[in-house]
Amino acid sequence: MKKTLIYLIFAVFLALIVQPNIRGNLSQGDQRVPTNTTNGTPATNDTIELKADVKDITICVDAAQQSGSDQDINLAMAEAIGKKLEDSGFQVVYTRQDTTTLSNDERLSLARNDKADYLLSITTTNDTDTLQKGFSIMTQQNTNLINLGSDIAEELESVNYTDYQGLDSDHYENFPILTNTNMPAILLEVGYTSNTEDVSALTNEATQDKIATAIARGFVLHISQEKDS
Q1: Helix (H) or strand (E) holding 11
Q2: Neighbour count for residue 98 (Cβ, 10 Å)
Q3: How far apart are CA 84 and CA 90, in angstroms?
Q4: pTM of the prediction?
Q5: Tens place of pLDDT for every residue, the chain, 229 residues?
Q6: In sequence order, which residues have a C-beta less than 8 Å from that of residue 63 and are 6 or more positions away?
Q7: Does residue 165 contact residue 135 with C-beta atoms inside 8 Å?
Q8: CA-CA distance, 158 to 38, in Å (whole number)?
Q9: How far apart are the first and last CA of the chain?
């Protein structure tokens, strides 16, 4: 009987004193705690990181000129990326948000007229080898852009939606949208429309959102580091 009474007292002690103290000692960083936002949508620690003092930076998002499903993916991805960049604090403009046909010169002119600091062109690619998949980044031979491209690539790799095929700054002259070096530009090939896995990822809204978030985070991290240096 004595032992039973001792165990009962010990259990009450644990429940009333020890457990609340353990809970109270947990720091906010140990838990993903939603916080209130102005639009009523809960924000986690990850989304808070996307906010930065970048309102003086304008990014022109370009949906590359293609046709069929390629064009649909480009437009959808450009829309998703632009929204995430806006949510992060950037000024965002677009070369087009529908199937309007524009030449490379017209797209570059729109970016310049809007005084864009960066042009981000979104495109897809394809191959006769249907097993070929992955995203690639092409940019001009500019250290700042190469570093930005690397930051974006690192964030995109964390999404793990496809393979990373690399960053190329040596052959930018092969891509008309990159040839005007007065406009800092990055061309992002988001995947292969000849590969079913890439198409499945790129047409999935949840994956589009993750890709867009990763790209926005890459811009925020890079420009924040630039401002701090």
Answers
A1: helix 2-13
A2: 8
A3: 9
A4: 0.77
A5: 555 555 556 555 555 554 444 344 433 333 333 333 334 444 333 443 566 678 899 999 999 987 777 899 999 999 999 999 999 999 999 999 999 999 999 999 999 999 999 999 999 999 999 999 999 999 999 999 999 999 999 999 999 999 999 999 999 999 999 999 899 999 999 999 999 999 999 999 999 999 999 999 999 999 988 877 7
A6: 71, 74, 75, 77, 78, 94, 95, 96, 97, 122
A7: yes
A8: 28
A9: 71
**Strand locations in 56-211 (E):** 58-63, 91-94, 118-125, 135-139, 164-168, 185-192
Q: Which residues contact 168 (CB under 8 A, 6 or more apart)?
A: 136, 137, 138, 139
Looking at the DSSP bridge assignments, the partners of residue 91 are 58
Token digits of residue 169: 């700054």
Fill in the amino acid letter for 59. I
* Distance (Å, whole) CA 33 – CA 45: 7
Contact call for residues 78 and 62 (beta carbons, < 8 A): yes
